[in-house]
Amino acid sequence: MPSIDSTRAGCYDETMEIIRSRNLRDRVVTIAAVVLPLAVAAVLVPFRTTLPSTVAVLLLVTVVVAVAANGQRVAGLLAAISAAAWFDFFLTQPYERFAITHREDIETTVLLVAVGAAVTELAVRGRRHKSVAKTEAGYLVAIRTTADLVASGASSTDVISLVRRQLTELLTLRECRFQRGRLGGLPTFDSDGNVLWAGSTWDVDRVGLPADPIELRAMCNNRALGRFVLTFEPGSRPGELPRQVAVILANQAGDALSREQQFSSGRRGYATN
Question: How many of the other CB atoms lie within 10 Å of CB of 100?
Fold first, then answer.
């Protein structure tokens, strides 16, 4: 059975490969956003005197839709602008000039840009919802992985080590360390993921996190058994959901610590008897 470390390393490598592939795809799609409308418009040049402009526009819109469905917002907008520009240059009179003399062609060009922008926005929102769903699924996997490790009877050291790695990845931390028996003196995450400092709640969404490291307590049955000290990158503004997931992960470490303490107390009581 593979170890937790090897499993986590495999997940990290897979995640980095996905990111590299996504970045490469975005670069390719951005180039295609400029080149493909030009190529389609150029192919239609021999037919421009007989081909209805509506057909040419539909073909160019198809290109914009394809780009928007596979790239970022910038790529979709570039495709829309490129399609409108080359439609003007190649397919409207006067030909091979960036000028339009007919009102219908002006309206068609404007409509082409508007449709392209609308399609791009719809595609971006669709991908955003998909990304959110994948991210939330990743949170559930992290919680389940830690819960399974705790349930397996693993040592608190192993659970804490896993949670430290998970917190570092989840919150994009510069550093994460665990301390037993030390509490207070730092800003603190409460049970809902809010940041408490100097007796008040810190507005993370508006001003970001405090400059100091933040304490995340490992709780069990309303008792703190230690704390994770989180050092964030400057300007970090983790969302409410990842902060709440971080609290759950820390409390799972608290469960492991509590179970270990109970086991040690039971062994001492048995030895005394």
Answer: 19
Nearest residue to 152 (alpha-carbon basis) of 262, 259, 5: 259
Q: Which amino acid is at 199?
A: G
Cβ–Cβ contacts within 10 Å for residue 208, how many?
Answer: 15
C-alpha 146/C-alpha 207 separation (Å) is 31
Amino acid at 202: W
Report the pLDDT value the prediction gives residue 44, as an integer from 0 to 100.
Answer: 92
Give the per-residue pLDDT at 1.
40
Burial of 34 (0-12, 13-18, 19+ CB in 10 A): middle
CB 139 within 8 A of CB 245: yes
The C-alpha atoms of residue 164 and residue 231 are separated, in whole angstroms, by 12
10-residue mean pLDDT profile of the chain (273 residues): values are: 46 52 77 91 90 86 85 84 90 84 80 82 78 82 92 92 93 92 88 88 84 92 93 87 94 92 61 49
Alpha-helix residue ranges (DSSP H) falling in the chain: 4-43, 53-70, 73-91, 103-151, 156-171, 204-207, 240-272
* Overall fold of domain 155-272: Beta-Lactamase (3.30.450)
Q: Which two tokens stand for residue 198?
A: 């100097």
Domain extents in the chain = 4-132, 155-272
| pTM reported for the whole predicted model | 0.59
In angstroms, the Cα distances linking 250 to 103, 143, 215, 231 are: 65, 10, 11, 15
Among 228, 240, 243, 70, smallest CA distance to 164 is for: 228
**pLDDT for residue 183:** 87
HSE of 236, CA atoms in CB hemisphere, 13 A: 22
Residue 266's pLDDT is 55
